[in-house]
Amino acid sequence: FISVPIRSATSSSEHAEFVALLNSYLADESLTPLERAQFTIQRRWLSSADSSNVAELLCVFSCMPGLAGLPLADGRVTLWNPVAHLHPTSRGSVHINSPDPFAQPSIDPKFLSRAYDMKAFLQALRLREKIIRAPPLDSMITQSAIPPSSVQTDEEVEAFIKANITTFAHPVGTAAMAARNLGGVVDQNLKVYGTRNIRVVDASIIPLQISATPASTVFAIAEKVFVIHVAVENLANANERLRILF
Q1: What's residue 191's pLDDT?
Q2: Where is the Glucose-methanol-choline oxidoreductase C-terminal domain (predicted)?
Q3: For the domain 2-164, what is the CATH code?
Q4: 17, 163, 164, 167: most buried by Cβ count inside 10 Å?
Q5: Which strands sit side by side in the sheet containing 83-85, from one edge to the other?
Q6: Which stretches of the chain drop beneath a pLDDT of 70?
Q7: How far, in Å, CA of 99 to CA of 94, rounded?
Q8: Bridge partner list, 119
Q9: What does the DSSP assignment read for 57-84?
């Protein structure tokens, strides 16, 4: 995995365009409170020289024989190198659309609905091209399958992105931990607002994607809810003992 800040993958003028786009989104009065809070954090990440460790782009390199359907009878190995945009600005929705708890929800990801995200993907693909066209990889790669070598211009790359974009196995944020007045779903103790003791213990509480795969963070969330549960149980037992005593 190569996690890269947009600042490191762009020129100063290109980086300024990303900041300007975020500023224009923050000026939109139709933003939800949670979107405004999220974009404010993202702008700080983009603008601060101290945030160079915050990665917005991800390149994945893995050698997998036969991936993408390439015939490898001659012994060649396929290099799988997708790119991901870790902090997109587009916002979709997930809604219950039936009283049947087993019915599929209505999901609209609204990929690329903001220009910022297409620019990020373009930069990520440019970065990938720089890597695979540099030694020693350049001497090992004989052909490009996805995207095909015929895809060259920005317009062609954008069309390819629109036709092939998908999620990347690590969704977060559908039950975000945030203040209730911002539109958060759970509080700092992972309890769903408006309930007595319903807690969410998975990646959906993470309000912004982190700059890495989230597995370790999800383990930490599970450990936190265990500590909370023990504390609640201990408090309940202590209250019961006090009730009996007095």
Answers
A1: 92
A2: 88-222
A3: 3.30.560.10
A4: 17
A5: 2-4, 57-59, 83-85
A6: 49-54, 61-73, 75, 232-246
A7: 15
A8: none
A9: EEE--EE-TTGGG---TTS---EE--EE
> What pLDDT sits at residue 243?
57
- Point out the catalytic residue in the list 15, 85, 95, 170: 170
Phi, psi (rounded to 5 degrees) for 192: -70, 130
Cα atoms found within 13 Å of the Cα of residue 231, Cβ hemisphere only: 7
What's the rounded Cα separation, in Å, for the pair 199 and 153? Answer: 48
Determine the pLDDT at residue 239. Answer: 57
Cα gap 108→30, rounded to integer Å: 19
Q: Tokens 């609204």 map to which residue?
A: 110
Provide the pLDDT for residue 168: 76
Burial-class residue 28 by CB neighbours within 10 Å (0-12, 13-18, 19+). Answer: exposed
Element (H, E) at 106: strand 106-108
- The values of phi and psi at residue 58, to 5°, are -135, 130
Contact between residue 49 and residue 63 where contact means Cβ atoms under 8 Å apart: no
Instruction: Note whether 72 and 65 are within 8 A (CB).
Output: yes
Using alpha carbons, select from 151, 6, 189, 13 the residue that is nearest to residue 89.
Answer: 6
* Residue spans per domain, the chain: 2-164, 180-245
C-alpha distances out from residue 183 to 35, 37, 177, 179, 235, Å: 9, 10, 9, 7, 29
CA distance 237 to 244: 11
Where helices occur in the chain by DSSP H, the ranges are 6-9, 12-26, 33-47, 115-132, 154-164, 215-245
